[in-house]
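Pasting as-is:
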Amino acid sequence: MMTDLKHLIIYTAAYLMSYITGRAELSALSSICLICAAVFLYYMEHRRTRELLNLRGLMALGILGGEGIARLQLSRLSTVWTDSTWLSFYLFYLIFYAASGLTERLMESKFSTSGIHKIYKRKISDEALFRILILSVIVISWTAFIYEAINLRFIPLFTVDTPHAYSYFHLKGIHYFTTLNVLVPGISMLYLEHRKKRALRPDAISILGIILPLLLSVLLVSRFQFMFSAILALFTATSSGRKYKLWQAMVIFVLMIMVYVGITVARAHSVEYLNGIFEMKNPDTPIFITQPYMYIANNFDNFNVMTRELTVHSNGIRMLYPFLTLTGLKFINQDLAAAFPLFTTKEELTTLTLIYDAWYDFGLMGVTVFALVIGMITGFILYEHKLDSNPFAKLIYAELAFYFSVSFFTTWFSNPATWFYLGFSVLFYLLY
């Protein structure tokens, strides 16, 4: 408890220094303060948990690290941040960190002796359950994909001169099941770890569970689906205790980059388009700096634009969007979402941060409640992960690790697909 308090005091001091130097237009110093705070918090969490994928540390790198990069203000689109922007991001991580730590300790103190887990006898073995889940999701995803391809009469990979082919490859309700394949590589890694403990080699199902979902993401020409599938598999394996040698990590990284670049080429994006759209102060900035900076910094500037220009809050509409979508209620009033448009620095740059919709709904109060809820959920998952009684808790842990790592990128928990994947992951957890 005292350790967490010390960390939050250091975090507050670093954040205050960043705010003061930012107001003085010392962008580099303002950036350094936040980046150092992010690295410090990640390091302390890593030292405490002995895990590379520690959720509170990854959230620090994603939110605070991303905020620090944004404070460099290398683009002409960057503007002076409002006090609401500064306070929102400060309070979000403060409350998230405190709530997750407190919830984890409460779970440990309440259930460490009595326990909350009962042992049930299943009619099938663990190995059979893994096989059934892997094969079932593969069949569901590929069936949905074939159904979409037949009805839409094209496959994104085989289109010519169509930059956004994947954007048009959607049938309402069906496409969620097509993309459910992203969970299969993670499940396959859990299955491989299960077989490894029994001194068994990988079988055909575990290998197909990795190859077929990645192949499907290539056919869809979806960089996100490919990266999410691959990263979720790696995160699941890592959270399960698998250790990778340096050369193995490098080979995996190079292969992922090669496929990512190949999909980018297939999407027909031009370097000129990506390099010119962000309005960098230095027009000679290399594309390998411009593109990642664009995907991180502008999201925070979009949040800042919202705090300046928003006049009417959406009162829960944006955060409830997954519920309205998955239940079909959004079709009752299809103009509802359009009544609350995005506030962005530029029409083409629409990526956001994790807390954008929370502020859009209720302002600072929305950010506070959202941080509290996410923190409590994280604390429970941290407890389950440490307890190590259900392998599918590690799948949920890996999903959260991904969302927290790229929390600078978009409002993950306002996305129906996020809850669709988490819902099935919880179902697998309950089945086990």
